[in-house]
Amino acid sequence: MDLTCKNISYSIKDKQILKNVSLNVSGNKFFTILGPNGCGKTTLLKTIYRVLKPTSGEILLNNKNIENIRLKDSAKEMAVVAQFNEINFDCNVEDIVMLGRSPHISFLQSEKQNDFDIVEDALRDVGMLDKANRSYSSLSGGEKQRVALARAIAQKPSLLLLDEPTNHLDIKYKLEILHIIRELNINVLAVLHDIQLACKFSDCLFLMKGGEIKYEGIPRQTVTESSMKDVYGVNCKISWTDDNQAMIEYI
Amino acid sequence: MTRNKTDIKFNILLIVLFITLVFSLLSGISLGAVRISLKDTYSTIQSNLFHINAASLSKSTMAIVWNIRIPRVIMGLIVGAGLALCGTVMQTTVNNPISEPYILGISAGATFGATFFIILGLKSMTGIGAFFGSVISTAIVMFIASIGKNITTTSLILSGAVVNALFSAFSNFIISIGANSDSMMTIKFWTMGSLASATWADILLPLFVVLISLIFFMTQYRTMNTMLMGDEVAITLGINLQKYRLVYMLFISMITGVLVAKCGIIGFVGLITPHISRILIGTDHKKIIPLSALLGSLFVLWADILARCLIDKAELPIGIFTSLVGGPFFIYIVIKNQKGGQR
């Protein structure tokens, strides 16, 4: 799987939200987009998962322009866990996860045993198997997030896009979810807020500011005192442990 | 996994409801101003279908059963299934639990279209008029409701009320200036609904439309399940909902139009039945579509039986009974929704 964004821009009326963003995601690595609020992280993800259409530039999925790929086919390659996970009707957890299979099942075909197995595995991966028959509204925020992740896993994607998947979760669930994702061993492109967690889990970081990617590379080279000052406008001292964990002290 | 458990429950439910439906159809034929025994009913059906002479029956009994009661219960069956289908599909399409043709004023739009065509002298084309009326009112409701960016329960109810009031006024105006002796009677028919005038010839178009739609929507269950997750998630699952929404709304307008043109407005059937189905079996459309249709048929059949049996020698509009049950249920859903804290 190879995802390449070539000079994507996106603007609403006169306001330019993304400016010539280029990036490449491949090699089954964990990529993370960092940046202050309103820098265009979510917009960038949305152009990739096809909710928004870039004003210019192109997005290539496996070297093919994504606009020429059927929605159903791109859904077989990439799955999304977004921020907002509320629904108006009270669905059963298992039914929701089963929806992840829909790109793989053709019209008029019904779910096969294989699909049920995949759903079961996905629920087990996120530790929700015992709650497969619960109603979605009865779940806690962290559990809802895990159901959304299970649905994405059931899609069997080669690229997982995550928009602050650990928002509103306490640190235990944050770590748990990121570990689960890491262990999937597929390409991940995530938007995260927590810089330290991003450094811990990511192979590569993109630091965004004002709709542009300003810095990119492995965490140790990207998260520096000067880049933090530039992107977030904060002064800090950073030290690194031997296992690549960043210790950030804000001044 | 657990699929077998819910499947068994679903199959049992289907069988129970189906048996109840057969029983209700027979009750609908035998109950009324003139009581007709099941045996006579059976003999009449036999003699009409297989030309076996049933000498013991009077001509009038046979006429009541074959020309009045049977078309009427079949119409009830079709109307109930059709309205329930409309409600189910609409709640999912708009992603809002209060949607229904009656509450959103689409039935009123259909009435306007039908009465307008009648006044133009196109009485044979009332169905088409009703279809246009419901398409127009659907478009208006959706437009007003979506002005504030996304459609909320409040904006839907409000725009539904507005459209309802407007189109009811239009059609009542038309009926009033139409000024023939029974124009008041006609207003009652359009606003409260009635199955009384159903004939064999009337049944064909609704039967065709509802059956086709039912089959169509049964094939759409996965897309409709995805709709419950909202637009963004649907796109990430490979489905662009806008396209489907348009087609679904056209189907709903078509069903509503045809049914209103034949039977007037029968409210709340489409509101209640999907909710009961979801309580019984969950949100999987593969199951709630047939279940709602069955429940809708039962509901309308019994409302109609009540309408003609409750008071001697008088026939009440069927809408009274569906609204008596539906109104409180509507309140319950609104309260439940408000409590849920969302929207």
UniProtKB/TrEMBL annotation, chain A:
Record-level Gene Ontology MF annotations: ATP binding; ATP hydrolysis activity
CDD domains noted in UniProt: ABC_Iron-Siderophores_B12_Hemin
Ranges for domain ABC transporter: 3-235
Record bears the keyword ATP-binding: yes
Pfam families on file: ABC_tran
Keyword Transport in record: yes
Keyword terms of this UniProt record: ATP-binding, Nucleotide-binding, Transport
Gene3D superfamilies (alphabetical): P-loop containing nucleotide triphosphate hydrolases (3.40.50.300)
Protein name: ABC transporter ATP-binding protein
Lineage: Bacteria, Bacillati, Bacillota, Clostridia, Lachnospirales
Automatic annotation (TrEMBL), chain B:
Main subcellular location of this protein, as a coarse class: membrane
GO BP terms, alphabetized: siderophore-iron import into cell
Localization per record: Cell membrane
SUPFAM superfamilies reported in the protein's UniProt record: ABC transporter involved in vitamin B12 uptake, BtuC (SSF81345)
Membrane-spanning segments: 12-34, 70-90, 102-122, 128-148, 155-179, 199-219, 246-276, 288-307, 314-335
Membrane topology per record: Multi-pass membrane protein
Matches recorded under Pfam families: FecCD
GO molecular function: transmembrane transporter activity
UniProt keyword list: Cell membrane, Membrane, Transmembrane, Transmembrane helix, Transport
Transferase is among the record's keywords: no
GO cellular component: plasma membrane
Keyword Transferase: no
Top-level taxon: Bacteria
Gene3D superfamilies assigned: ABC transporter involved in vitamin B12 uptake, BtuC (1.10.3470.10)
InterPro entries membership: ABC_BtuC-like (IPR037294), ABC_transptr_permease_BtuC (IPR000522)
Protein family: Belongs to the binding-protein-dependent transport system permease family. FecCD subfamily.
Cited PANTHER family: ABC TRANSPORTER PERMEASE PROTEIN MJ0876-RELATED, FERRIC ENTEROBACTIN TRANSPORT SYSTEM PERMEASE PROTEIN
UniProt-recorded name of the protein: Iron ABC transporter permease
Organism: Lachnoanaerobaculum orale
